[in-house]
Amino acid sequence: MKIIDGGVTAPKGFQAASTAAAIKYQNRKDMAMICSEKPCKAAGTFTTNVVKAAPVKWDAEIVKNSPYVQAVVVNAGIANACTGEEGMGYCKETSVKAGELLGIPADAVLVASTGVIGMQLPMERITAGVAGMVPLLARGREAAKLAAEAIMTTDTVSKEAAATVEIGGKTVTVAGMCKGSGMIHPNMCTMLSFVTTDAAITKELLQEALSTDIQDTYNMISVDGDTSTNDTVLLLANGMAENPEITEKNADYEAFLEALHYVNVTLAKYMAGDGEGATALFEVKVKGAASKADAVTLSKSIVTSNLTKAAIYGHDANWGRILCAMGYSGVQFDPEKVDLFFESAAGKIQIVKDGTALNYSEEEATKILSEPAVTAVADVKMGGASATAWGCDLTYDYIKINADYRS
């Protein structure tokens, strides 16, 4: 696998465009479009929240039943969630407009929205935005970059990733863009992620690859414990790499999974590190668990603990908060076997051995925890399973951002 500089236009046949439609934001782009030259197999995973936004319902139906997909239209600023029948009408109107201008069926157009819940979409601006983007569709790196910027809400940076892999003598590219900063929690988070690939692969294996990979990527991040109404990951494959079609779980499938995992885990970590108000990416590695399920539960419990997140913000090696979070996770383990470590670019330090604090240097621990990316490692010594979760610190600015979000 080779990591490359690219976004959604990196795979063959994909184009992107963006525009300022003034949906909610002023003086910035707030709509994006992705389009493939050829029809795509489509896969998707969506929020586990019972309250599902209209675009989530629309896309789930399209991914499941449409013969193919060829375009995605995204808006930022208004989520089109809790908008009743009108919301579903907005999805249809957007898809019909895009389909007419692109010369494809309306059920080949996916839609996504992010922003404030409960507001109605200004459809005259949405349709004008669609009309404005179609002539701007382009393959270049800049088009992908601007599209990634256009879907941001409280994000402070745009998020893209791309990789190539050789399959059947052909270069296959997987690339993506996402947005997500707040209302993010395991089991899909306020996040939208759009992944494109020129791989030739069956629809069934495409869906399986995505559904499997999100378990160790998007489902392992948390910012604030809130699972959004709009979470969507879409994966489009147009087959233009012309590799032998992947029809079974063989070496070609594993190679594709490697590239897909790189893109997904990179985007997931970007979102965790760009949590609202965050100053640090907080990674939690649990090893020595009795089962993978136990490792996942323990790592998520630590990374979502507000007290632990606050300690990370304060560069405070308050290890008791980590053991506490592990203790209420529901996982059975022996606390008198646990070893805890902190590590970052500044070094690594063990702070607990067999459940008891070591005589470690608080000054050294603070130095390690003052980096922009820090890791806590917990070895429970109960077995051979491990898991990694990602989150961020909890700062004063998180409250400020969300107290003023609607205004």
From TrEMBL:
Sites where the protein binds substrate: 153, 179, 190, 276, 402, 407
Enzyme Commission identifier(s): 2.3.1.35, 2.3.1.1
Major location (coarse): cytoplasm
Catalytic residues identified in the record: 190
Keywords recorded for this protein, A-Z: Acyltransferase, Amino-acid biosynthesis, Arginine biosynthesis, Autocatalytic cleavage, Cytoplasm, Multifunctional enzyme, Transferase
SUPFAM superfamilies: DmpA/ArgJ-like (SSF56266)
GO BP terms: L-arginine biosynthetic process; ornithine biosynthetic process
Pathway(s) served: Amino-acid biosynthesis; L-arginine biosynthesis; L-ornithine and N-acetyl-L-glutamate from L-glutamate and N(2)-acetyl-L-ornithine (cyclic): step 1/1; Amino-acid biosynthesis; L-arginine biosynthesis; N(2)-acetyl-L-ornithine from L-glutamate: step 1/4
Database matches in InterPro entries: Arg_biosynth_ArgJ (IPR002813), ArgJ-like_dom_sf (IPR016117), ArgJ_beta_C (IPR042195)
Site keyed Involved in the stabilization of negative charge on the oxyanion by the formation of the oxyanion hole: positions: 114-115
Record's keyword annotation contains Isomerase: no
CDD domains: OAT
Cellular compartments per GO CC: cytoplasm
Catalytically driven reaction(s): L-glutamate + acetyl-CoA = N-acetyl-L-glutamate + CoA + H(+); N(2)-acetyl-L-ornithine + L-glutamate = N-acetyl-L-glutamate + L-ornithine
Reported function: Catalyzes two activities which are involved in the cyclic version of arginine biosynthesis: the synthesis of N-acetylglutamate from glutamate and acetyl-CoA as the acetyl donor, and of ornithine by transacetylation between N(2)-acetylornithine and glutamate.
Family note: Belongs to the ArgJ family.
Oligomeric and partner information: Heterotetramer of two alpha and two beta chains.
Protein name: Arginine biosynthesis bifunctional protein ArgJ
Lineage, highest ranks first: Bacteria, Bacillati, Bacillota, Clostridia, Lachnospirales
